[in-house]
Automatic annotation (TrEMBL):
GO biological process: phosphorelay signal transduction system
Name recorded for this polypeptide: Putative two-component system response regulator
SMART domains hit by this protein: REC
Domain HD-GYP: 145-283
Response regulatory domain segment(s): 9-125
Taxon lineage: Bacteria, Pseudomonadati, Thermodesulfobacteriota, Desulfobulbia, Desulfobulbales
Pfam families: HD (PF01966), Response_reg (PF00072)
UniProt keyword list: Phosphoprotein
Sequence intervals crossing the membrane: none
Modified residues (4-aspartylphosphate): 58
InterPro entries: CheY-like_superfamily, Cyclic_di-GMP/3'3'-cGAMP_PDE, HD/PDEase_dom, HD_domain, HD_GYP_dom, Sig_transdc_resp-reg_receiver
PANTHER family linked: CYCLIC DI-GMP PHOSPHODIESTERASE TM_0186-RELATED (PTHR45228), CYCLIC DI-GMP PHOSPHODIESTERASE VC_1348-RELATED (PTHR45228:SF5)
């Protein structure tokens, strides 16, 4: 049976079929889709196939009770965040506390009133929908921020190459060799406490910044043909210090870049404007 789009699925778990029918009769006026199970084991098997938006879980069931079912449910990557409302005739404070400690969002004692059940189901479905929407927005923003970081690093590399073709070529070659060497070390199991696949990606992305400080070196020194004087060579060696300052500014500018993403100017204009700020000497 295919789940209808934009129609929340409520899953009811109770070992007494009559209790399931009572719950469904109270909720039938809502625009919902329903599924059910009469045991914790059956519920886990069915929930893994179709992740519901809300679960109504009886606590006192033979075999795997509601609390044990909840513990197994939280181990599922797909269903661990699904909200669960416990339904039970037991109202002892210890039972209520246990339900919340296991991650339940609410606790309704039997016999329950239809108005109360409908209100709580409606409220928790709205909260769940809001949370899912918020998580999706955060994920999208995180991807945008990652993209901004990557574009910024590439733009800085392009800026260095524009000033000095040799420097730009060196930056790109270094990026390639850093990745090759890191992958080789990873395959050999070296530095396994630090060198992960994610870290290799980070090394590859940030390698172009290792010589970025040269963009702050005067053209008369950076582009000079022939041997540098002692004073000029001393200035050239300061490119590591300048690079640190540029990268420090970069970290501060990322917030501004993120804000500029939604500004009237294009993202490329925002990045290039920020690059000028990064490499402009302070007064």
């Amino acid at each position: 049976m295919r789940r209808q789009p934009n129609k929340p699925l409520v899953f009811v778990v109770d070992d007494v079929p009559e209790n399931i029918q009572i719950a469904l009769s109270h909720l039938k006026g809502l625009d919902l889709e329903f599924a059910y199970a009469t045991s914790g084991e059956q519920a886990l098997a069915r929930i893994r196939k179709r992740i519901p938006d809300l679960i109504l879980m009886d606590v006192m069931m033979p075999g795997m009770n509601g609390f044990a079912t909840m513990q197994e449910l939280r181990k599922s990557p797909e269903a661990h965040s699904t909200p669960v409302i416990f339904l039970t005739a037991r109202s002892e404070p210890e039972d209520v506390a246990m339900g919340f400690e296991l991650g339940g969002v609410d606790y309704i004692t039997k016999p329950f009133h239809g108005v109360e059940l409908r209100s709580r189901v409606r409220n928790h479905l709205e909260l769940h929908s809001y949370r899912v929407s918020l998580e999706q927005k955060v994920l999208a923003r995180t991807r945008e921020t990652t993209l901004l970081k990557d574009i910024t690093i590439l733009a800085m590399g392009e800026l260095a190459e524009h000033r000095d073709a040799n420097t730009g070529g060196h930056i790109n070659r270094t990026r390639f060799f850093v990745k090759v060497l890191a992958e080789a070390l990873f395959e050999l199991g070296k530095f396994s406490d630090v060198l992960t696949e994610e870290y290799i990606v980070l090394l590859y992305k940030t390698a172009p910044l290792h010589d970025i400080g040269k963009v702050a070196i005067r053209d008369s020194i950076l582009l000079k043909e022939g041997r540098l004087t002692t004073e000029e060579f001393t200035e050239m060696k300061k490119h590591t210090i300048y690079g640190e300052e540029v990268i420090d500014k970069l970290a501060q500018m990322l917030v501004s870049l993120w804000l500029s993403w939604n500004a009237p100017e294009t993202w490329w204009e925002a990045i290039m404007r920020s690059m000028m700020v990064l490499v402009t000497p302070e007064a």
